[in-house]
Every structure is written in structure tokens, then in C-alpha cells.
Design goal:
The complex is a heterotetramer, with two copies of chain A (about 350 residues) and two copies of chain B (about 325 residues).
Chain A: H1 9-12, E1 31-33, H2 34-48, E2 52-56, H3 72-76, E3 81-83, H4 88-100, E4 104-108, H5 119-133, E5 140-145, H6 160-165, E6 170-172, H7 177-189, E7 194-199, E8 207-209, E9 224-227, E10 232-236, H8 240-253, E11 258-262, E12 265-267, H9 271-281, E13 284-291, H10 296-307, E14 317-321, H11 330-336, H12 340-352
Parallel strand pairs in A: 2-3, 2-4, 4-5, 5-7, 6-7, 10-11, 10-13, 13-14
Antiparallel strand pairs in A: 1-8, 6-12, 9-11
Helix pairs in contact in A: 2-7, 4-5, 8-12, 9-10
Chain B: H1 5-30, H2 45-52, E1 60-62, H3 68-73, H4 78-85, H5 120-133, E2 140-145, H6 152-163, E3 168-174, E4 177-178, E5 181-182, E6 202-207, H7 211-226, E7 232-237, H8 255-261, H9 266-276, H10 282-305
Parallel strand pairs in B: 1-2, 2-3, 3-7, 6-7
Antiparallel strand pairs in B: 4-5
Helix pairs in contact in B: 1-2, 1-9, 1-10, 2-7, 4-10, 5-6
The chains are: A alpha/beta (about 350), B alpha/beta (about 325).
Bound molecules: thiamine diphosphate (TPP) (2 copies) and magnesium ion (2 copies).
């Protein structure tokens, strides 16, 4: 089931209708929260491109389980902001059909966890279509991911690896407001099906300067050096980026210089950037929230161990969730997720190697 | 059909317990004592209790997230349930799953559900299939919502159950909304039960706030199923009287709709009938409510004092031995 | 409804082409000239051609694996189709997808299907949704089988189409079997069309071997859909006259059942009517068959001489630019 | 759609009813084909354990798309060999319900490719159940996998990595008749949901001695050294094992000694055996048929690069399908699959490193 207890009480109230022209902003600065940045990209692109539409469960009148699409229904009407029945599989298939006929649908999965319900149509139909007979499938699925909110096994999942493994999909996972907007704009204009993972834990907990208009579009497939350093590379994406940054701050105080690569795109992966940081620091740690085995971290370790082997001075270390469903009780959930402390601990071990 | 006094007394207890427990959960949530979100049960008491009481001890249920009453009626104790809501080691999921999710106990014939609606439905069908193959006179009772009725799996499960004529009864809890989405934005036709005909299954619309109707109809369907006459689809109409979950102020629900349903509260209706039947008076009612409060106090105390799950066992039990 | 001579002539040509092409494929398969497996079209000619001819040039179809006739009627040439079956670079999928799979061309309004039945159905629904939103007077025509009708997605798609009153028409090709499984082992009720009522959609049972009935009913449904009256479910009863695929000798099909359907061959029925209407005689028939053989010879020659796909481009095109 | 042109004409005919008592064998030796070994395990276990049943599309009267279940319907009847409607998702859910009520269902996906249709119920319900509330889900899904048969994008897939990534499933992938039987018996007796990948290309192309009765049960989680060697380790599973063996034969003639580890189980992985062979030869090549990115090979490379780093003398090399759907035309399919030649080529490069 769903809840959004993570919505702070203040913001739970409806955004005043008069703020319509600028629904992205919950306050008046162009410093936006992560959630506002996503909303801004949707609004901006739907204004620019009449082919754009949003559909999903409760995205319209209600403004979405996280109030992310709030205001869009009022601005664009029920034909472009569609409250659908609970039918994820049909939703994805319908999005494919709409895309064939020239629309640019965005499907919101209420939680990333429910993407498995629409799985078949994503991986078999949409993903393979262009390869098989050349018709592009330009849609975006937005998937609110990740834990830390006491959501339990079905409201905390990080299922990106399934889609990275399935051929024919682009997969992105922004970690900052600017990247959230910039990558969503790219995804909305990409002629391919894109799975856009967004992090519930970041929705209202981080803010940042977000460019306007055509500024700040982030190309899919390009990683970003979130922090430059020399002694150790941390490769990560999504919410754990912020834990890695905190850990790097602490290590800096101990005169350790950590480089952090924020992947941003998971398919295509920015292999060059990955290999470059590995070659530079010679020590690599990979951090993600998803389950360990066959996760994206495995792919990165494999790439490095194949293509930057000579440069490595230490084992490649992965920090990820163990192979269990995300547990509910805070004490269990906290134990299962990578965080600053675990990163610090692993980093020190690796540095001492 | 006869309603024995004993049955009615039981039903009264379970429904009142459900209501009071639900109110307590609301309070505890506001006090920050629960983990995660919370789904109100208000409006669903007659369905969950009325249907569950139609079963025998060896029957099984696959409840949904508004069937707290069915958990009670199947014998799950308030202490265990409270533990579950508080994420304690003493809940059925030992703090691993959220609120009523994964709140199963096969010894009570309860299957814990997953969020992914309506994944419990084919599981109920499979259990019924097992009963048929094993020649056991048992029945599976499945619950799903108006929202869940739009998922394709419902079709597969109804077709399967009808094809093999399995002893399974489907209870649709049509509470007018799936989260913020009214049924008119989910389907074109007013009655989900009308789909049953396409499967050669009997489909019945019931007043889901009338315990007597729910219980009687379910009981009949259960016994027909047990006797080999196959499945049935019972659509219980009710109204979700709170938000989808506790954070939701349901501003999207017209006030008049709520006002219309308020006097049709399943507990009010039931107690009115009990009084008409001379089975209830103020003294009894107060006794019952007091007793229930005490029980819930005890459950709360139990859960609050119960141990947290042990993080050193985090990865244990992912596989059965 | 009137059937113009021109329409009937076209229909005759497409149906005969389908039959002859299918026979040729059979032969080529036995000669080892095709890649992979092969699905016979025999018994489905009136449905695929009759329904496809009910469309206008801007309409779209999502065919299934027994709709070769619809591909032809939508303008896919024998040369391209033969290339597809031979895995050549000149087929619609350039040798990447198998036989009719992935045999799409949006410029002809044809969506290539995937094996995963019935994944094309919501795609048709989505196209119809686009037409409605864009106020385009276009219709989507979707085909699925009795087997596919048991998949949950059909339910989601029918519900969605009816909820939004979309211009989409569903053709069920009920050929009595899903692979080896007779419909009685797939569902309890005889008519899939009967499910339409549950969605508030009109459901019609048609003799799928009668071109006239298929075409007329589809045409009416298509025009109603185009006019904004929403979707319809048309169940065309036929019989799969060969094995599921070419390797299958269908020992599981009672001989009597085949014998019963043999004289009801859609081509025989159609040509009998044409003769009754004085639109066909032996001379014309021979001319047509000769012409078709020549066309198929040419298609075969084209495909046999067509280049193989280029393995150096193996990974190209996985993403659109 | 389906076909089984890979069934040689001779064996397409019904097995004579009089052979009933020993339906596994299509001839009279206890040397069984891979397919016969699977059938033998099903028959043996269903005779031993009345809780066993088989269900799927066309598995009964028809004996399955590959005639693998042929004879079972005649022996065990329609209640234990169930021809189901096309409803993979319900099938999996029903299997879970049956398992709860004490049965031991085996679900046959007609092709592994269609397992995505039953995905939701596998990964969300069955896989997580024991962790969440302690009720075991003892079922087996049989998934006929792999290419080489000109099946095209939807009859050639190798989707194992999805299930290795999802927590709570056991995953096996036997490559020989003896392992096929031995692992299936273990799977059938395991209290957990097991995905059993079997290789269509091996069904009738390989035979081998297969133990009888309680002999030859292969525990889940144990890899096997298919060939001992010192110069290079090839880690593989499923059909490519046989290509690796052929390549090793050729290399042996050039005095190169190759060790081949046949994983057999993909979850749990036999980490000890993987690290041991890596430590022994110091050069590792991983071969699988599935798509490269985030495949099982990535996990193995990651494990080695983390835990056997000091022992490595060369980059870890992966040979797998590129990230495309399995193509149809023979010339494309052959180009996309790892085979003896590609293994040889990669091995020589690695040896020369
Ligand atoms: C497959 C799936 N999609 C989305 C959700 C998110 N979700 C949880 S409850 C709910 C509404 C359920 O409506 P209904 O079935 O009518 O039950 P109700 O809550 O009204 O009792 C939704 C959309 C889900 N749990 N499962
Ligand atoms: C989801 C899915 N499961 C299984 C199959 C394998 N399969 C291919 S065709 C077929 C039977 C289809 O029957 P029907 O829909 O009646 O079409 P028909 O072949 O009879 O024309 C099956 C089981 C498939 N293609 N897709
Ligand atoms: Mg509801
Ligand atoms: Mg059929």
C-alpha cells in the first residue's frame, strides 16, 4: 500500500492555485528541492511540447502520492494528466502505443516497487522494439525508489539492475536537484524508453540551484565527478551519493582525498569516467542502495577489473544492501543500508590496504 | 439462515475490537509510536468480520489491508498485531514487514499479503486448488478492493477458479475509492460483481455495511464452494470513511458522500439490530467497550515492552532451511 | 451493408494470396529454406482479411501470429514478408526477429508483435488513446486468440478501453485451441465475447469463416468506434486447421472436429458466394491463382537473392538516435 | 509463439505407452539425454512424493512443447499434470498457494522467455515470503532457456540474472544430464522457491551417465570442476560449458592447461570454488550466454576482484551476449553467442597477457 509520511506537514497542503504559473517552486527561490526540480522539468517540457502527458495512479486530482505532480492537472487538464486505474501493465503498453502515435507519455509508478507489475511490457515490448523493427518508443517511466523512510519491503526497493540488464532501455538515477531536472529533460526528449529512478528520501531533504529553461540539460550517459580526489574513488549513484559526500568530508579532515563519481546514468554507463577515476586513484569502492548480487556495482567492478586491471592497487570493494527485501523496523532498515559510517569504515580499510 | 446469539456476540466483539484498535493505532501514530504509514479500517468492519466468521477453523484467508477484523476473527491476538505495527520482534513478521503486510500465520489460516495488489488472489486460488486435489473440505476466502479489481491478475484468477471449479470465494471490498481515484475513474460499469457472469460464476452485490448480509451471503457461498459447486464473487459496497492512509486528508472526497455514509456506519447498523433483537443494552455495550480498551491497553503495553528485532540476524531466514 | 464488387475482388485476392503464401511457406520450410518455426494461417483467412479491410488507410492494426492476411491487406508486400521468413536484411525486422514477430511498419499502420501474448493489446489501446486525445478520426484494431484471452492483460486493456471510451476494436480469433489446449480446458464459458458485458462494451460472436460476417461486423464496430461510441469485442469462431506450428501433427485434435470444419473452409465459403453472385467463374479463378503463384515466385526469388543481415552491425540500432 | 523444430523427427512420435514404467528413457540405456534426465527426475520424485505435481501450458496431454513431460500425464493423471490456461502470473501465484497447503508444484514456463509474464508473483510474493513471515514456498519453476535454435528474440532468452538479483530465490542452471537430474531432485526437495534453468540446446544433443534412485543428488550451491587445469580458469554454466570444454581440448593440444568451473548453481553461488580456481590459475575468463551487463558474470568478476585480488595476474575477461535481444537470422545469432572460437581467441589473449 502507499503512504507519504515523508511529506512534511507544512507541504502537505495544496499549493495555492495562484502559484500555478510556477508550480515547481514551493518557495520563491530558484533553489529547488529535488522533488520541485522533477516537477519543474515535467511542467517545463509539457508547456514546451504539446505531445507530453503524464499518467499513473492518483497523479491527477490528487497530485500524486508524493504530491510531485501537484498543479499539473490544473494546468494541463485531465487529458494530459491522467488518473489511471490500477493497471501497471496496461499503462506501460498503452504508453508504448501512445509513443508510436506521436505522443510523449510519462508513466508514474506510484512506487518503484510496483514497476515489477508492468515488467513484461517494459522489457519485452518497449525495450526491444527499436532493435527489432525500427520503431522508436519514446516514453519515460518515473520510479520513486529507495529506502530510509520505514516503508518496508514494498515501498523501499531499488530495482534498477533488472532494467540495466535487459537490453534496450536507458536507465538514469539522479542524485541532485539539478541532475534530476537535467536528466528528466533529456529523458523526455530521448527517442528511447527511459526508466527514471528518483529517490524518495531526497524529495524534500535536499535542495540546490537548478537552472531554468533550456539551461542545465544533462545528457544521458555522462557521469559527474561530484568531488575530485586522489587517494580513493567512490563510485555511486542516487541517495547514497550524499552519504559518500559526508564521508569524504570527514576523511578530508584526516587529509585523505576522496574522489566521488556520481554515475547519474546507469545505462548507458559512462565507462570512460569509471575507468578514469579507477586509473587515477587505484582504489575503488562502489556504493549503492540496491541488493548486492548482480547489482550495478557488480557491473562496475567487472568493468574495472577487466579494463583498468593494471592500475588497481587494492581489491574493489562493494557496499550495498544484503540480499534481503528492505526490512521495515528502523533498526533493521538502518542495518541494511549503506551509510556514512559504513562508507568510512570500508574506506579506511581500503586506504590501509 | 439463523444467526445464533453466540455468533452475534462474537461478531460484535470483533467489530468493536477492530474499531477500537484502529482508533488506538491512529492515536499511536500521532504520538509517533508506530513505524511507517497506517491504513484506516473504518467502514470495513462488517465485511472483514462478517466474511471471516463464515469460515471454519481449517479454512484459510488471504486478507487485504482493510481486513484487520478478519485477522482478529481468525485468532491473531491484539498483542501480536500491535507488535507488528510497532515493528517489534514479537509481531508475525518480526519487524521485517510493514503494518498488516506480511502479517501471516499459516497455523491460523492467514496468508500475509504483499503490497503488490492483488497478488494474494491467485495464492488463494492455489490453496483452493490444493484442497480440491487433496479432497479436503476446506475453502479459501480472498479479499480484494475496487482498485485491485482493475489489475489483470484478477481476471486470471477468476478464470482459473471457475475453470477448475475450486472452493474459493472472492470478496470485493468496493469502498468507492482506490486511493484518490473514485470507481467512476477506474471502470465504466457500476458493479464489479457483474463480471462474474463472464466466467460462469455467481456474482452478488451486497451491502458491505450490513453484517447480516455479508455474513449470510458469504456463508452460503462458502458452503456451496465447500460442497463442490465452485467459486463465487461477492461485491460488498461500502465507503472508506478515512483517507487512503493516515497522511491523506481526502480532500478529493465530496463531503456529501461522507455525510451520506456516516449514518450507515456498520457498527451503528449492527448495534441497532442487536438492540432491536434485545441482545444489547447500554450496560452490555459499556462492558464490552471497557473490556476491549483493557485488552488494547494490554496489547500496547506488550508491544511497547517487546524487544526490537535483532540486527545481527538481519540476513537470517532469507531462505528456509 | 453493401459489399462492392471491388471490395470482394480485393478480399478474394488477399485471402487467396494468404492461402497460397502459407502453402508456399510450408513447402519452403520442408525444403529447409526458412529459419526457425512456422505457424499456419489456415482457417484464419476470412478473419484477418475481413477485419483488416474494414479499416481506412490511417487506421492501425496490432496483428497476432495468424494474421498474415492482415499484413497483406495493409500493404506489406510478399517480397518483404518472404524476406522476413528467411531472416534476410530486406524483411521488416532485417533478420532480427522471427517470422511474423516484429514484422511491423508504422507507415503501413502495422505494429510488430512480441511473443508475449497479448502484449500488443494495450499497445492498440494506447494508440487509440492517442487518437482520442489528438482528436484524430482513426481507429486501432487489435487481434488476440482464445489462448491470449486468459492472460490478465486482456482484462486491463478491455477495462481501460471501455473506461476512456477509446476507438479500438478487439478481434478474438477463437480457433478452439491454444497450442494443444482446447478452449474447454482454458475457460468454463463457451463465449469470450460474453465477457464484454462486464465492461459495458458490446460483445458479438461471429462466424469467423464467413468473410461477409467478419467484414460487416468489424466495419460497423470500427465506424462506431471512430464516431466516439467506444470499443467493441468481436469473437470470431474458427478452427485452426493445422498444428499449432509446423512441427505439430496435432494428434490431440479429434479427427471428427477437423472433418466438421473442412467443408467450412473460409475460402470455399467465400468463393461459393462469389460464384452465386456471378462474380467468379473457373477462368477468373485460374487467372487469379496463376497470378498469385507468379507473385509468390517473385517474392521467393527476391528473398532468396536478398542479402543476409550484416553481423558487423549486430549491436547497431538497439537504441534509436 | 512456440515451436520445437529442435525435436528430431524420430523422437517426435509418441513414446509407446508400454514404456510407461520408465518414461525417462527414449532408448534402453541408463545413458540419458539431458532432456531425459530432467524427465526422469520429475517422474522419480512424483512417484516418491505424492505431493508433487506439474503444471503449465500444454504439459499434459501434449507432453509439453519439447515433449519433456511426455508420459507423465498418462502415469499421474490430469490432477497432477495440469494443462493450464495461458496465465503465467496466476500459475505462479497458484503454485505459491499450493505450496502453502503442502503440495510441491513444478511450474513449466513454456520458454524461459515467458517467465517475465509471471515475474511479479515470483520476485515479490514467493521470493520474499519466508523472510517476511516465515512460511516456506517450496516450488520449482522450470525455464527452458538459451539460444542456438534460431528461436529469435522471444525463444532464446537467458533471464537468470534478474532472479539472481532478486533476494529470496534459489537459481540453478545445470549443464549435464547428471547435474540436470541431480539438481532437479534437490530443487524439488528444497523448501524454497527455485528457478531451474534448463538449456533447450542441450535437450537432445548431449547424453551422459545418470545415476538412479537416491544416487546422484546434487546439492544446490555447489560448483563443479568440470576440468582441472593450471594456466587459466574458465568459469561458466549452462550450454556454453560444452563450448568451453571443446576449447580446453584444443588448448590442451597446445600444452595449455585450462581449468573449467561449472557453476551449476547461480544462487547461492559457490564463492569458495570461484575464489579457489581464481587463486589457483590467476587468470580468469567468465563465459555465459546471457546479456553482458549486470549478468551473472559481472557478479563473479566482482567477487574475484574483491576477494582474490592479490592472486590475479591478468584482467578478468567476460564473454557474453552483447546487450541486444537474441537475434533470429543464423548469421546474427551465431555472431551474438559465445562459442568455442571466441573462447579460444579470448583465452589466447589472456594467456599471452
Ligand atoms: C500493483 C500495485 N500498484 C499500486 C499500488 C499502490 N496502492 C496501494 S493501495 C492502492 C489503492 C487500492 O485501492 P483498493 O484496491 O480499492 O483498496 P482500498 O485501499 O480502497 O481499500 C494503491 C494504488 C499497489 N499497492 N499495488
Ligand atoms: C505469455 C505467453 N505464454 C506462452 C506463450 C507460448 N505460446 C505461443 S502461442 C500459444 C498458444 C496461443 O493460443 P491462442 O492465443 O489461442 O492463438 P492460436 O495459436 O490458437 O492462434 C502459446 C501458449 C506465449 N507466446 N506467450
Ligand atoms: Mg477501494
Ligand atoms: Mg487459439
Amino acid at each position: 500500500m502507499t503512504w507519504d509520511s515523508i511529506i512534511p506537514r507544512e507541504t502537505k497542503n495544496e499549493i495555492s492555485r495562484s502559484a500555478r504559473n510556477d508550480i515547481a517552486r514551493e518557495d520563491n527561490a530558484r533553489e529547488l528541492t529535488y522533488l520541485e526540480a522533477i516537477r519543474d522539468a515535467l511542467q517545463y517540457e509539457m508547456r514546451r511540447d504539446p505531445r507530453g502527458l503524464v499518467m499513473g495512479e492518483d497523479v491527477g486530482v490528487f497530485g500524486g502520492a508524493f504530491k510531485l505532480t501537484q498543479g499539473l492537472f490544473e494546468e494541463f487538464g485531465e487529458e494530459r494528466v491522467i488518473d489511471t486505474p490500477m493497471s501497471e501493465l496496461c499503462m506501460v503498453g498503452a504508453a508504448t502505443g501512445m509513443a508510436f502515435m506521436g505522443l510523449r507519455p510519462v508513466v508514474e509508478m506510484q512506487f518503484a516497487d510496483f514497476i515489477s507489475t508492468g515488467f513484461d511490457s517494459i522489457v519485452q515490448f518497449a525495450a526491444t522494439n527499436h532493435y527489432r523493427w525500427g520503431a522508436p518508443v519514446p516514453w519515460v517511466i518515473r520510479a520513486p525508489s529507495g529506502g530510509g523512510l520505514r516503508g518496508g519491503p514494498f515501498h523501499s526497493q531499488n530495482p534498477e539492475a533488472w532494467f540495466v540488464h535487459a537490453p534496450g532501455l536507458k536507465v538514469v538515477a539522479p542524485a541532485t536537484p539539478a541532475d534530476a531536472r537535467g536528466l528528466l529533460l533529456s529523458a523526455l526528449r530521448d527517442p528511447n524508453p527511459v526508466i527514471y529512478f528518483e529517490y524518495k528520501a531526497l524529495y524534500r531533504s535536499i535542495r540546490g540551484n537548478v537552472p531554468e529553461g533550456e539551461e542545465g540539460i544533462v545528457p544521458i550517459g555522462r557521469a559527474k565527478t561530484a568531488r575530485a580526489g586522489n587517494d580513493l574513488s567512490i563510485i555511486t549513484y542516487g541517495a547514497p551519493l550524499h552519504e559518500a559526500l559526508k564521508a569524504a568530508d570527514e576523511l578530508a579532515r584526516e587529509n585523505v582525498s576522496v574522489e566521488i563519481l556520481d554515475l547519474r546514468s546507469l545505462k548507458p554507463l559512462d565507462t570512460d569516467a569509471i575507468l578514469e577515476t579507477a586509473r587515477k586513484t587505484s582504489k575503488v569502492m562502489i556504493v549503492h542502495e540496491a541488493n548486492l548480487t548482480c547489482g550495478v556495482g557488480a557491473e562496475i567492478a567487472a568493468l574495472i577489473s577487466q579494463h583498468a586491471f593494471e592500475f588497481l592497487d587494492a581489491p574493489i570493494v562493494r557496499l550495498a544492501a544484503p540480499d534481503i527485501p528492505p526490512p521495515y523496523a528502523p533498526i533493521l532498515e538502518d542495518a541494511s543500508r549503506p551509510n556514512k559510517e559504513k562508507i568510512l569504515q570500508a574506506a579506511k580499510k581500503l586506504l590501509a590496504y | 439462515m439463523e444467526f445464533s446469539n453466540e455468533l452475534l456476540e462474537q461478531a460484535h466483539y470483533w467489530m468493536r475490537l477492530t474499531r477500537a484498535f484502529d482508533d488506538r493505532l491512529d492515536l499511536l501514530f500521532k504520538q509517533g509510536k508506530l513505524v511507517g504509514g497506517l491504513f484506516s479500517q473504518r467502514g470495513h468492519e462488517a465485511i472483514s468480520v462478517g466474511a471471516a466468521l463464515a469460515l471454519g477453523p481449517d479454512d484459510v484467508i488471504t486478507p487485504m489491508h482493510r481486513d484487520l477484523g478478519a485477522y482478529f476473527a481468525r485468532g491473531m491476538t491484539p498483542a501480536r498485531l500491535m507488535s507488528q505495527y510497532m515493528g517489534r520482534a514479537t509481531g508475525p513478521s518480526g519487524g521485517r514487514d510493514a503494518n498488516l503486510h506480511g502479517c501471516g500465520d499459516l497455523s491460523l489460516g492467514i496468508v500475509g499479503f504483499v503490497s503488490h495488489i492483488p497478488q494474494s488472489t491467485p495464492v488463494a486460488v492455489g490453496m483452493a486448488h490444493a484442497f480440491k486435489l487433496k479432497r479436503e473440505p476446506r475453502v479459501a476466502l480472498n479479499f480484494f478492493g475496487d482498485g485491485g479489481s482493475s489489475e489483470g491478475l484478477i481476471h486470471e484468477a477468476l478464470n482459473w477458479a471457475s475453470l477448475y471449479q475450486l472452493p474459493v470465494v472472492f470478496i470485493v471490498e468496493n469502498n468507492q475509492y482506490a486511493y484518490s481515484t473514485p470507481t467512476k475513474n477506474q471502470m465504466r460499469m457500476p458493479d464489479i460483481a457483474a463480471r462474474a457472469a463472464g466466467y460462469g460464476m455467481s456474482g452478488v452485490v451486497i451491502d458491505g455495511n450490513d453484517f447480516f448480509a455479508v455474513h449470510k451471503t458469504t456463508k452460503e457461498a462458502v458452503e456451496r464452494a465447500r460442497g463442490g459447486d465452485g467459486p463465487a464473487l461477492l461485491e460488498c459496497k461500502t465507503m472508506r470513511m478515512r483517507g487512503h492512509a493516515i497522511h491523506d486528508n481526502m480532500s478529493y472526497v465530496p463531503k456529501e458522500l461522507l455525510a451520506e455514509w456516516e449514518p450507515r456506519d456498520p457498527l451503528l447498523l449492527f448495534e441497532k439490530r442487536l438492540r432491536e433483537m434485545n441482545l444489547l443494552d447500554d450496560v452490555k455495550q459499556n462492558e464490552l467497550l471497557t473490556r476491549i480498551e483493557r485488552e488494547i491497553d494490554a496489547a500496547q503495553a506488550f508491544a511497547e515492552n517487546a524487544p526490537m528485532p535483532d540486527p545481527s540476524k538481519l540476513t537470517e531466514g532469507i531462505f528456509a532451511e
